[in-house]
Each structure stands twice: as structure tokens, then as C-alpha cells.
Specification:
The complex is a heterodimer of chains A (340) and B (387). Chain A has 340 residues and is an alpha/beta fold. In chain A, 35% of the residues lie in helices and 28% in strands. Chain A is built from twelve helices and 14 strands. The radius of gyration of chain A is 24 Å and the shape is elongated. Chain B has two domains: 2-39 and 188-386, no CATH class; 44-166, abc type-2 transporter like fold (3-Layer(aba) Sandwich). Classes of the chains: A alpha/beta (340), B mainly alpha (387). The A-B interface holds A 79-81, 101-102, 104-105, 107, 109, 111, 113-120, 124, 128-129, 131-134, 176 and B 1-2, 5, 9, 12-13, 16-17, 220-222, 224-232. The structure holds adenosine-5'-triphosphate and magnesium ion.
Chain lengths: 340, 387
């Protein structure tokens, strides 16, 4: 795959892109996706509960949440595969519930499960999905070749999909959603069950697509993916969007503090007392043989902390400095870990 | 357009599936070939003839029996000698051509041609059928002869009236042979009977087994992914229907062509046969789509589907004529579409019927097709939009 001339997808550039005029010649719109107060129930269970978010052109938006959080349901609502009990979705200025067919032509949907004919070749699969999006003839053939190139499967284009590796299938699964040049690419956990190398390739190609102006909605329960790929992240838990923002904004919610984890023995009590009186240490937690500190600029505090340990008579076996990440944000917001 | 795309893609997949091709294209021919071989020569049933009338007409009857496919005539001098051969299993039936056979017929009387058999079920059944049809044919020529003879005299109007009267009487050509047996109609000869019933049987079985393909496609997530494209559920239902219809028509056409060209099967009135095959293909399509929505796994569909198809085929007269089963079983058989299709074929083939003669069965079959297609469409749509 061709990596994007990536700029690290800084939030500022996403905002700038958002102000560019919309492509596609359709209804005028500012955000490619506007979801307002989406609610969807299955029986008594509220799978999606009053969820609102929006995605600008060229912006990558991540929905991060554990199993059963409502990611797939949200995506199915966005793609018009499910109707909301409440709320509305607009894609490229088109109301998805009212103008489903028109809206669907603007969306590229990559389902969570690989949905391809295993007994057809990559080329045949792409031709099939291309026809569903009203492509035909030489335009279809040319576009199939382009997409094969894009997902790096040109060499294997005429092999049957059941002879593909998991990563190749995932790539083709993405390719099938790009044929009609959508304005919004919706990916539902596209890297599940994929080896790290293929995962890297998939991430890079999504990033490349994003930098070409495509808006991306990406669900995952891998925090690293959301951090790496997405301009903005929405954290979803039990159907509710509990927080939203850039990585920096989200992390700021738990405070810009690092965790210093020390595994030590000896007089931990007096060591902890020494730490509490230190400049830049906000909290100290002692349990068994570990001491956990919340510190601003953790790495800078480390020499002082270690000196205090030896003078208090505690012997330190290992030290770890954990910078705040979305995992910490999730833990902070929901009280549970992202991955069980 | 979407429907055609889907149908085309599914057909392409089918064409690559060897197991599927075996069942659709090869197996029906194996069965037809087998039946064709057994009924057209290799195994011949022996029939003893006791000919008490030495007229040309009686000779013609005996020659007709000998020439009939699957029959070989051996002579017996007396009734007792014939019965002895029957008991020893040397022959499967004894035909007694009575004295005065020719003179009675020529004078317009009716003749009983007794046929003795052991009453055992088995090949005897088809032998009796064959004998019956040979006698029927003979009776028809006698009638024609009688008509000609009588027409020599009288005015045109009288003759015309007679001709009409005789035409109206002509079913009695068949009825006369019933003196031999009490069944109400006779059946076409072995092979001509089996090829159409095999068509009925296999088109249906393959359709129900083919339901597996729909289940597989659904489980592959193709349908729900397709619905994310600007595609309506009804296009997908139509596409699947088109795919099944094409397969059914292809299979039926192949059976008709190879049956006709290679085995000399007579399919009767072309228009009526075409309509009948088409309606049956629609019934098959409906059954296939229903099977695709009824079962949960492809394995269930491909195991249970054919079992149901075979059971219906047995009940509906595809394996043996419903004429030989008790009335209750025959009535039960008519709960299956098969019985109506077989009835229509019998009408076309044994009575030389045309389209107007099978309108009844066609109406029933169309109702079956509409009910099955309707049920399938509703179920498929629901499974597409809620999956
Ligand atoms: N068709 C359905 N019928 C009933 N309940 C459903 C249906 N689809 C989803 N749910 C329920 O809605 C909730 C959210 O499911 P959803 O599939 O959206 O979660 P998810 O975030 O995609 O999870 P995962 O990471 O496991 O894919 C779950 O509790 C699930 O059981
Ligand atoms: Mg999911």
C-alpha cells in the first residue's frame, strides 16, 4: 500500500480541511456525517443511547469501545442498514432514513466480518460490488484495477479469495467499499484477527485515503489504533458516547499526569510519606509491594523519587512511567478497562 | 439490474461447484439412462399368448405385443399351459386372445381380452400397463376401420354425424381395454412415463437442495453488505429467484432435449409441455427460495431438501403411477404439487392431450408456485432486513 505523505493527522489540519467546500456535487454540506441523538433499542436493551457526533471531510473519527458497546449498531444506523428509534443521520447532506438509496451511494461500508465470495477471485468480487454501485463496462474494469492497486492485491487479483491470507481478505474487504469513490468510509473493526504487519499496512492505507479528503468513521477496541489513526475519538460504552475529542483533549480530562509505578520492598510507608511532600506529585498509592504515583512530567521527577526511596530505606526493583493514553481515559470515564 | 448482477454472480459460482453440477446435470441423466436402458430392451418381460383366434386382426395384436418395448411374446397352446408358465415364473402374464375376437369387433361388439398375472407387485405392473396400451392401440384402429366401413354408405351428413359420434365415443378406445383391468385409465409406456416424472422429481429436488446457496450467501454477509449499497431488498430477492429459475429451466431443458434426442422420449404437445415445464420450474424456484429461508445451515438445506423432494416425489407419483396406489394415498399425494404435474404429463403423453386438457392441473400448480414464491419473498425480505 502507498503510505500517505502523512502529517500525523493533526487536529488542526482536520479542522482546516473541514472548511473546504464539499466534493461530490451533491447537496451542500459542511460535515460529511452528522448523527444527532441516535437511539436504537433491541427489545429492552438500548444498544445505542442518544449518540451525537459529526465528521468533517478528510477527518478520521474513531469510535472506541469494548465488546457490545454499540459500535456496530451505530455503524449500521449510519449506513442505513438499521433505522433509528430516535434521532437522525445525515450523510453528505442527505437524510439517511428518508433518502437511503441516495445516501448509500455516498458511503463505503466495510463490515466487521469479511463479506466476500470466497469462491470468486478478488477481481470478480470487486466487479460484483462495483455493479451494485452502478458501475459497469470499461469504467468498472478500470476502477477495479485501481482499487486492486490501492489495496496491493494486483498480483493476486485472479486468485480465489479462499486462497488468501486473513490480512489479504481484510484488505480486499476494504477495497470492495472504495470502488464507487465514497465520501464517507465507514470501517467496523477492520483489523480484527490480522497480524501486526498487515495491520500496519491497513492502517497506512486508511490514513492515505483520509489525506485524500475522504472522511473516515472507524470503530475499534484497540486504543493504539484510535490514537494513531483518528483525528478525533468518541468513547462509547454501553450505548452512550461518554466523551469525545482529540486525543489531547481527552487525555486532558484525566489530567496531564503520568503514572509512575514502582515495585519495591522495605519501608514503603516512609517512602510514600516522602513522596507526598514532593513537588509535582499529586497522589500516592501504596499496596503490597507496589507504589503508584500520579505525577506531572513523570520522567523529570524520577531521579528525585529514586533518591527518596534509597534514603527512606526502600529498595526499588523496577520502575515504569506510563503516560496518559486513551486506555487511562476510558478507565477514568467508565471505571472499567477497555479490554477484559 | 442488481437482480441480474446477483443472479449472474450466483450462477457463476454454481457453475464452478462440481458437486452441484453433478446433482443438477449428471445425476438426472444417470437415472434416466438407467431407466431408459432397463425399459428399452435389456430386460424384457416375457408374456405368454394363448391365441384362440387366428384372424389377421388377432395376429396383429400379438405382433403388437411382441413389438412393444420391454415385452417378448411366447406362445402357449392352452390356457392351462400358459398358467403353468406363469406359476413357474417363466412369464409375467398370460394374454388370452378369445375365439371370435375379430368377428365380434368387426360387428361392432366389444371384446374382453383377459390377462392373467400372479398379482405380485413389481415388474408385473409395468407389463400390464404395456399390454393395456397395446390393446388400446389395437382398439383404436378397429374403431377407425369400423368408421370407414360404415361410411361407405349413407349421405355425407349422416357420415359426418357418425364421425362426430364416433369421435365422441373415441375415448372408449381406452375404455375398452379396461375390461382387462378395472383401472380407470392407462399409462404411457415405461420410459415415456419415467422421463417426465424424473424431470418433475429432479427439478424440485435440486431446487430445495439449492436453498443451501441462499443460506450460504446470507451467512457470508453478502446480502447485508449489498444492502449497504444503493440496493433494495426486493432486488436481492428477485436476483435469487432469477438464479433459481434459470437453473431449473436449464435443468429441465437439458432433460427434455437429451430425453428427446438420445432416448426418443415423446414429450407430447410442444406448447402444453413448454407451459407445464415452465410452471413446474416456477414451483421449483419457489420451493428453493422457501428452503433457503427455512433452514439455518446450508447442510440442513442440502440434506433435508432432497429428502423432502424424494418423499413428495413418492407421494406424488414420480416413482410409481398413482393409478396403482389406494385411493386414500392417491388423494394424499395430491397435496404435493408433484401429483398434479404427473397428472398433467399423463394427460399429455398417454391421451395426446393439449394445453386445454391440462388447464386444471396447471391452475393448481400455478397456485402452488404463487404460494411458495410469495412465502419465500416475505421470509427472505424479512431475513434480509433484520439480519
Ligand atoms: N440484531 C440484534 N438483536 C438484538 N440485540 C442486538 C442486535 N445487535 C446488537 N445487539 C445488542 O446491542 C448491543 C451492542 O451491540 P454491537 O454489536 O453494536 O456492539 P459492538 O460495540 O459492535 O461490539 P463488538 O466489539 O463485540 O463488535 C449488544 O448488547 C448486542 O447484544
Ligand atoms: Mg461490532
Amino acid at each position: 500500500m502507498t503510505p500517505a505523505p502523512s502529517t500525523g493527522a493533526a487536529p488542526a489540519s482536520a479542522a482546516a480541511r473541514a472548511r473546504e467546500p464539499a466534493r461530490g456535487g451533491g447537496d451542500a454540506y459542511e460535515d460529511v456525517l452528522v448523527a444527532s441523538h441516535l437511539t436504537r433499542r433491541f427489545g429492552d436493551r438500548v444498544a445505542v443511547d442518544d449518540v451525537s457526533f459529526h465528521i468533517a471531510p478528510g477527518e478520521a473519527y474513531g469510535l472506541l469501545g469494548p465488546n457490545g458497546a454499540g459500535k456496530t449498531t451505530t455503524i449500521r444506523l449510519v449506513c442505513g442498514l438499521l433505522s433509528p428509534d430516535d434521532g437522525s443521520i445525515e450523510v453528505a447532506g442527505i437524510d439517511v432514513t428518508a433518502g437511503a438509496t441516495r445516501a448509500k451511494a455516498r458511503i463505503g461500508y466495510v463490515p466487521q466480518e469479511v463479506s466476500l465470495y470466497p469462491d470468486l477471485t478478488a477481481r470478480e468480487n470487486l466487479a460484483f460490488f462495483g455493479r451494485l454501485y452502478r458501475l459497469s463496462g470499461s469504467a468498472l474494469r478500470a476502477r477495479v484495477d485501481e482499487v486492486l492497486e490501492l489495496v496491493d492485491l494486483t498480483d493476486r487479483a485472479d486468485d480465489r479469495v479462499d486462497a488468501y491470507s486473513g490480512g489479504m481478505r481484510r484488505r480486499l474487504n476494504i477495497g470492495a467499499s472504495l470502488l464507487h469513490r465514497p465520501e464517507l468510509l465507514v470501517l467496523d473493526e477492520p483489523t480484527v484477527g490480522v497480524d501486526p504487519q498487515s495491520r500496519h499496512a491497513i492502517m497506512e492505507s486508511i490514513r492515505a485515503l483520509g489525506s485524500s479528503g475522504l472522511a473516515v468513521l472507524y470503530t475499534t477496541h484497540y486504543m493504539e489504533e484510535a490514537e494513531r489513526l483518528c483525528d478525533r475519538v468518541g468513547i462509547i460504552d454501553r450505548g452512550r458516547l461518554v466523551a469525545e475529542g482529540t486525543r489531547r483533549e481527552l487525555v486532558a480530562r484525566v489530567g496531564e499526569r503520568d503514572r509512575i509505578l514502582l515495585s519495591a520492598s522495605g519501608s514503603l510507608g516512609s517512602f510514600a510519606a516522602a513522596c507526598r511532600s514532593m513537588e509535582g506529585i499529586d497522589s500516592v498509592d501504596v499496596s503490597d509491594s507496589t507504589v503508584e504515583l500520579l505525577a506531572r512530567d513523570g520522567r523529570l521527577r524520577l531521579p528525585t523519587v529514586l533518591a527518596a526511596a534509597s534514603s527512606a530505606g526502600a529498595s526499588v526493583r523496577s520502575v515504569e512511567v506510563v503516560e496518559p493514553d486513551l486506555e487511562a481515559v476510558f478507565l477514568h470515564l467508565t471505571g472499567t478497562a477497555l479490554r477484559e | 439490474m442488481t437482480a441480474v448482477t446477483l443472479a449472474w454472480t450466483e450462477l457463476r459460482r454454481a457453475a464452478r461447484d462440481r458437486t452441484f453440477l453433478f446433482f443438477v446435470l449428471f445425476l438426472p441423466f444417470m437415472v434416466i439412462l438407467l431407466i431408459g436402458v432397463t425399459t428399452s430392451g435389456f430386460t424384457q418381460e416375457r408374456v405368454a399368448v394363448v391365441q384362440a383366434d387366428r384372424s389377421a386382426m388377432a395376429d396383429a395384436l400379438v405382433a403388437g405385443l411382441d413389438a412393444a418395448p420391454g415385452l417378448r411374446v411366447v406362445r402357449a397352446t392352452t390356457r392351462d399351459a400358459g398358467v403353468q408358465r406363469l406359476r413357474s415364473g417363466e412369464v409375467t402374464a398370460v394374454v388370452l386372445v378369445p375365439a371370435g375376437f375379430s368377428s365380434t369387433l368387426q360387428s361392432g361388439g366389444s371384446v374382453v381380452v383377459p390377462v392373467l398375472s400372479t398379482g405380485e407387485v413389481g415388474s408385473g405392473g409395468s407389463t400390464l400397463t404395456t399390454i393395456r396400451s397395446v390393446v388400446a392401440r389395437q382398439a383404436a384402429t378397429v374403431q377407425a376401420a369400423a368408421f370407414a366401413t360404415r361410411s361407405v354408405s349413407g349421405t355425407f351428413d349422416q357420415n359426418h354425424a357418425r364421425a362426430l359420434a364416433l369421435q365422441r365415443e373415441s375415448p372408449t378406445a381406452g375404455v375398452r381395454t379396461e375390461v382387462v383391468d378395472s383401472a380407470s385409465s392407462y399409462l404411457p409406456l415405461g420410459f415415456s412415463y419415467s422421463a417426465p416424472t424424473m424431470l418433475v422429481l429432479f427439478v424440485f429436488i435440486n431446487a430445495t437442495a439449492g436453498g443451501a446457496a441462499i443460506i450460504q450467501t446470507r451467512r457470508l454477509g453478502i446480502f447485508s453488505r449489498a444492502l449497504a449499497a444503493p440496493v433494495r431488498p426486493r432486488d436481492l430477492v428477485l436476483g435469487e429467484g432469477l438464479c433459481y429459475l434459470t437453473l431449473a429451466v436449464a435443468q429441465a431443458a437439458l432433460i427434455v432435449l437429451v430425453g428427446g434426442l438420445v432416448f426418443g422420449v415423446n414429450w407430447g404437445n410442444p406448447l402444453a409441455a413448454t407451459v407445464l415445464v415452465t410452471v413446474w420450474c416456477l414451483v421449483g424456484t419457489g420451493a428453493g427460495l422457501v428452503s433457503g429461508t427455512l433452514f439455518h445451515t446450508p447442510e440442513q438445506a442440502s440434506a433435508i431438501g432432497p429428502a423432502v423432494g424424494i418423499a413428495f416425489g413418492m407421494l406424488g407419483g414420480c416413482m410409481w403411477p398413482l393409478e396403482i396406489v389406494p385411493a386414500g394415498v392417491r388423494a394424499a399425494g395430491h397435496l404435493t404439487p408433484h401429483a398434479w404435474a404427473v397428472d398433467a404429463w399423463v394427460t399429455l403423453l398417454s391421451r395426446g392431450g393439449g394445453l386445454s386438457d391440462i388447464l386444471g392441473p396447471l391452475a393448481v400448480l400455478s397456485a402452488f408456485a404463487v404460494a411458495l414464491l410469495g412465502t419465500a419473498t416475505l421470509r427472505l425480505r424479512r431475513s434480509l432486513t433484520t439480519a
